[in-house]
Design brief:
Keywords: Lyase. This is Cyanate hydratase. The protein is of the alpha+beta class. The chain contains six helices and two strands, in the order ααααααββ. It has two domains: 65 residues, Orthogonal Bundle (434 Repressor (Amino-terminal Domain)), CATH 1.10.260; 64 residues, Cyanate lyase, C-terminal domain (Cyanate Lyase, Chain: A, domain 2, 2-Layer Sandwich). The termini are far apart.
């Protein structure tokens, strides 16, 4: 029996096919009927897709059943040290290093002792025009989870 393709290999094929077919991440998200950022993360191997979602994307991109199968596998959600050196990703790390303690204090002040869920969670990326150059707006929207002792 042949092993299931890795999520990294499937992601590489998705990215290649997306570029070569001229598709956008938005088009792929619309095809699977899921939020843009979630769909992009799933196609990059960070979430499992349902069979129908994986099949729809692979059909649109002309990819095989082996890719669809890999897209459905539950991923390991581990830290990728190499990705952290990418300038865009590093800026998020830098921003959380600087503002993380303040955000934590403000969450505690507003909600009490607890955390923001990254499971019951959505994230959105948008553009806001600005005379000094367009702004990137990233919105994290997570359920508050109180600590229960």
């Amino acid at each position: 029996m042949e092993p299931i393709m890795t999520k990294a290999a499937a992601a590489e094929q998705v990215v290649t096919a997306r570029i070569r077919t001229g598709r956008t991440w938005q088009e792929l998200a619309e095809k699977v009927g899921a939020p843009l950022v979630w769909t992009t993360a799933a196609l990059l191997g960070r979430h499992p897709m349902r069979a129908a979602q994986a099949a729809a994307v692979c059909d649109l991109l002309g990819l095989g059943d082996d890719v669809a199968e890999a897209l459905q596998v539950q991923p390991y959600r581990t830290r990728d040290e190499a990705a952290l050196t990418d300038p865009t990703i590093y800026r998020f790390t830098e921003a959380l290093t600087v503002y993380g303690p303040a955000i934590k204090e403000l969450i505690h002040e507003e909600f009490g002792d607890g955390i923001m869920s990254a499971i019951n969670f959505t994230v959105d990326v948008s553009r806001r025009p600005d005379p000094d150059g367009d702004r990137v707006v990233v919105t994290f929207d997570g359920k508050f989870l109180d600590y229960r002792w």
